Amino acid sequence: MESHQENIILVKKVCEIYDNLSKLETLKPCKDVDNLFTELVHTCIPHSSINIATLPPNIQEIRFKLIKLCGEAEGHLEAHFSTIIGSYKNPLHHLNVFPYYSNYLKLSLLEYTILNQNCPTKAQAPKCVAFVGSGPLPLTSIVMASHHLKETTFHNYDIDPLANSMASRLVTSDDDLSRRMVFHTADIMDVTDELKQYDVIFLAALVGMDIDEKVIVMEHLAKYMAPGGILMLRSAHGARAFLYPVVDPQVLQGFDVLSIFHPDDDVINSVVISRKPLMPVNTNQPHLGNASIMPSSCKYCEFQAFNSPLNNMKMIEE
After folding, report:
1. 27 CB neighbour count, 10 Å cutoff
2. Which end of the chain is more exposed for a tag (fewer CB within 10 A), N or C?
3. Hey, where are the domains in the chain?
4. Contact yes or no for 22/69 (Cβ under 8 A)
5. How far is CA 82 from CA 29, 64, 171, 172, in A?
6. What is the torsional sign of CA 243, 290, 160, 267?
7. What pLDDT digit, counting tens, does each position of 137-185 carry?
8. Which among 255, 239, 259, 237 has a CA at the least distance from the CA of 247?
9. 3-class secondary structure per residue, 187-228
10. Gap between the Cα atoms of 218 and 207, Å rounded
11. Pick the CATH number of 100-316 from 3.40.50.880, 3.90.550.10, 3.40.50.150, 3.40.50.2000
12. The pLDDT value given to residue 125
């Protein structure tokens, strides 16, 4: 009963924050925007028993609109700090100017460790990786290339030419990263045979603002990726689903889900790792509608206690 009451208070608080955000004239960084999104994150980060799928339609609609606002604000925030960081002589020495840089360090370490655990990266690190939806501040690619996959080439895809221009400016002063970081201005739905060259593809959390859009992208990747290729996805769990879309394994047609990890600290995104099977599969099956893709439990989810940095992170299991 106490948990139910806590969830009611949580939803009420999230709706109040949404109402205040929706009244703002702009979502570009400023005191009001920063305060409201900080309040939203602090509201949604603590562990919660809330089952997003059971919320009534009016709350689901608010959640969808809130995710779009979060995506818009995140884009403005990244562009703002990309401009600041890019103004330095050596931009890569000033990445910590971005207020959430430490979160990206943790998330990238988590994703690398998961990748390393599920794939033979120690024996043969991926030669070519793609990040779809890299944006003006491609911190995941930069951190991965700088700290974890130091011989790998990273191809960053974004539909916005200005975002790519800002992102490429961050690495031009670094001889190594400027050689290994490639930027493509393209809609990923127009990229076909080139996808076969990537050993691993990362899909940003906000590529596909709702699950139907995201499924279309995933089906496209399943069609054109090389068999055995790895797809890394970012999802959300519990109240964090008010901030980012939830990716359920049932919608990953054309991929075998290997593991799903739910951090229980200030790393907001869950991580889903999947592999395209070596044998052809039918990716033309109709996917489930919105009402069916967020069950309260997930048989694929697991917490793997192995000797890795994951042991030092708070994790939860569905």
Report:
1. 21
2. N
3. 2-86, 100-316
4. yes
5. 13, 27, 11, 13
6. positive
7. 999 999 999 999 999 999 999 999 999 999 999 999 999 999 999 999 9
8. 237
9. CHHHCCHHHHHCCEEEECCCCCCCHHHHHHHHHHHHHHCCCC
10. 10
11. 3.40.50.150
12. 84
> pTM, whole model, 2 decimals?
0.85
pLDDT digits 0-9 by tens, 208-266: 877 888 999 999 999 999 999 999 999 999 999 999 999 888 888 899 999 999 988 88
- Is 289's pLDDT higher than 60? no
Annotate the chain with three-state secondary structure: CHHHHHHHHHHHHHHHHHHHHHCCCCCCCCHHHHHHHHHHHHHHCCCCCCCHHHCCHHHHHHHHHHHHHHHHHHHHHHHHHHHHHHCCCCHHHHHHHCCCHHHHHHHHHHHHHHHHHHCCCCCCCCCEEEEECCCCCCHHHHHHHHHHCCCCEEEEEECCHHHHHHHHHHHCCCHHHHHHEEEEECCHHHCCHHHHHCCEEEECCCCCCCHHHHHHHHHHHHHHCCCCCEEEEEECCHHHHHCCCCCCHHHCCCCEEEEEEEECCCCCCEEEEEECCCCCCCCCCCCCCHHHCCCCCCCCCCCCCCCCHHHHCCEECC
